[in-house]
Structure formats: structure tokens, C-alpha cells
Amino acid sequence: MKKLTNLIKSFWHWFRTPSRIAVGTIISLAFIAGILAWVGFNYGLAETNTEKFCSSCHTNDVYPEYLHSTHFQTRTGVGASCPDCHVPHEFGPKILRKIVAAKEVYAFYTGKVDTIEKFNERRLHMAENEWARMKANDSQECRNCHKMDRMDRSQQKEVAAKMHKFAEENGKTCIDCHKGIAHKLPDMKDVESGFKKEEK
């Protein structure tokens, strides 16, 4: 017990009057630890922002739908992956989205949506949450690629050109019309219409 007391006293004395070498060592170690933590954090963020990560849970529900959508199979080979549409690019909103997504991962691993049947039972609820998120941020993830002011409406079908003009003039956002663009729509019979199924 006496040895332990002496050890604590010695440590406390050293802590209150550290040498320059000790201070330098602590600062250097803290700096290295900070760099490693930042690199690890960014690595984890990047790894959870991949199609592979998303499909690891969504193998049997929305991922196969996405593989048959025009966001995956495109004429030019330029496509959008899961994070392009579901994860904001800006740091703050991205972190917030990751925190919310942790709840979705938890729901999968606790068996709430681990089968296609369970997923479909909650599909409308989950879709409405995502539509509300996209409506609130003015469909920012869509607008990262699709910009209204760059659209050549002469190259669009007549109805699409009219609807895009109407949307621009009336403050509408992409998700107001394009709800079924990459995934099957949930059962919408009790929901107000105003969506466009994806054209094949």
C-alpha cells in the first residue's frame, strides 16, 4: 500500500512539474493520436459511403430495384450510386444523415426489416421519411447532378419540358414529381398522388 501511495505521489509530482521532454512527448503523442483519429474517422466515413456498404443490408429489397433503374444502367455509363442520392455532400448534413442512418442499420440487425416482407410492410413509412428529407433540403442530392437552369428543354419530351418549366416557376423540387425514380413505389392507394414512375 505504501508503494502505491509513493507511486501516486511521484506521478502527481511529475504531472504538476513536468520536464520539457515530458511536455514535448505528450504534445507529440496527442498530435499523432489526433491525426490517426481524423484519418480513421474519414476512412470510416468513406467506407460507409459506398454502394458495397449499402448493398450489404439491402441485398434483397431496394438494391436489386436500383440495379434496374436509369440511375444504374445508363446510355452513357454515367450513373449515380446509393450515397449520391441518399447522403448529402456537405460535412454537417452528411454527419447528421449518418447518425439517422444508424437507426436504420439497427432496425435491420434487430430484425425489423431483415426480410423483403418486413421491408415492404414499412416501405411507405421509410419512403415518406426520405421524401420529406429531400423536400426539406430542396432535393439537394438530385441537384448535385441535375440543374434546372442547365436543362435543354428542346431535347426533352414536351410534357417533361412543360413540367420542368412549371416546377421552376412555382418553387417545386425534384422529389415532388420523381418519387419512383430508382426504387419501387410503396402502396400509394392512400397517399395523395403527384409522382412520376420511372420511365424505361
TrEMBL record:
<feature type="binding site" description="covalent">
    <location>
        <position position="174"/>
    </location>
    <ligand>
        <name>heme 4</name>
    </ligand>
</feature>
<feature type="binding site" description="covalent">
    <location>
        <position position="177"/>
    </location>
    <ligand>
        <name>heme 4</name>
    </ligand>
</feature>
<dbReference type="InterPro" id="IPR038266">
    <property type="entry name" value="NapC/NirT_cytc_sf"/>
</dbReference>
<comment type="similarity">
    <text>Belongs to the NapC/NirT/NrfH family.</text>
</comment>
<feature type="binding site" description="axial binding residue">
    <location>
        <position position="146"/>
    </location>
    <ligand>
        <name>heme 3</name>
    </ligand>
</feature>
<feature type="binding site" description="axial binding residue">
    <location>
        <position position="86"/>
    </location>
    <ligand>
        <name>heme 2</name>
    </ligand>
</feature>
<feature type="binding site" description="axial binding residue">
    <location>
        <position position="183"/>
    </location>
    <ligand>
        <name>heme 2</name>
    </ligand>
</feature>
<keyword id="KW-0479">Metal-binding</keyword>
<feature type="binding site" description="covalent">
    <location>
        <position position="145"/>
    </location>
    <ligand>
        <name>heme 3</name>
    </ligand>
</feature>
<feature type="binding site" description="covalent">
    <location>
        <position position="54"/>
    </location>
    <ligand>
        <name>heme 1</name>
    </ligand>
</feature>
<dbReference type="InterPro" id="IPR036280">
    <property type="entry name" value="Multihaem_cyt_sf"/>
</dbReference>
<dbReference type="GO" id="GO:0009055">
    <property type="term" value="F:electron transfer activity"/>
</dbReference>
<feature type="binding site" description="covalent">
    <location>
        <position position="85"/>
    </location>
    <ligand>
        <name>heme 2</name>
    </ligand>
</feature>
<feature type="binding site" description="axial binding residue">
    <location>
        <position position="178"/>
    </location>
    <ligand>
        <name>heme 4</name>
    </ligand>
</feature>
<keyword id="KW-1003">Cell membrane</keyword>
<feature type="binding site" description="axial binding residue">
    <location>
        <position position="104"/>
    </location>
    <ligand>
        <name>heme 1</name>
    </ligand>
</feature>
<dbReference type="GO" id="GO:0005886">
    <property type="term" value="C:plasma membrane"/>
</dbReference>
<dbReference type="Pfam" id="PF03264">
    <property type="entry name" value="Cytochrom_NNT"/>
</dbReference>
<keyword id="KW-1133">Transmembrane helix</keyword>
<dbReference type="GO" id="GO:0019333">
    <property type="term" value="P:denitrification pathway"/>
</dbReference>
<dbReference type="GO" id="GO:0009061">
    <property type="term" value="P:anaerobic respiration"/>
</dbReference>
<feature type="binding site" description="covalent">
    <location>
        <position position="142"/>
    </location>
    <ligand>
        <name>heme 3</name>
    </ligand>
</feature>
<protein>
    <recommendedName>
        <fullName>Cytochrome c-type protein</fullName>
    </recommendedName>
</protein>
<dbReference type="GO" id="GO:0020037">
    <property type="term" value="F:heme binding"/>
</dbReference>
<feature type="transmembrane region" description="Helical">
    <location>
        <begin position="21"/>
        <end position="41"/>
    </location>
</feature>
<dbReference type="InterPro" id="IPR051174">
    <property type="entry name" value="Cytochrome_c-type_ET"/>
</dbReference>
<keyword id="KW-0408">Iron</keyword>
<dbReference type="GO" id="GO:0046872">
    <property type="term" value="F:metal ion binding"/>
</dbReference>
<feature type="binding site">
    <location>
        <position position="82"/>
    </location>
    <ligand>
        <name>a menaquinol</name>
    </ligand>
</feature>
<keyword id="KW-0249">Electron transport</keyword>
<keyword id="KW-0349">Heme</keyword>
<feature type="domain" description="NapC/NirT cytochrome c N-terminal">
    <location>
        <begin position="19"/>
        <end position="188"/>
    </location>
</feature>
<keyword id="KW-0813">Transport</keyword>
<dbReference type="InterPro" id="IPR024717">
    <property type="entry name" value="NapC/NirT/NrfH"/>
</dbReference>
<keyword id="KW-0472">Membrane</keyword>
<feature type="binding site" description="covalent">
    <location>
        <position position="57"/>
    </location>
    <ligand>
        <name>heme 1</name>
    </ligand>
</feature>
<keyword id="KW-0812">Transmembrane</keyword>
<dbReference type="InterPro" id="IPR005126">
    <property type="entry name" value="NapC/NirT_cyt_c_N"/>
</dbReference>
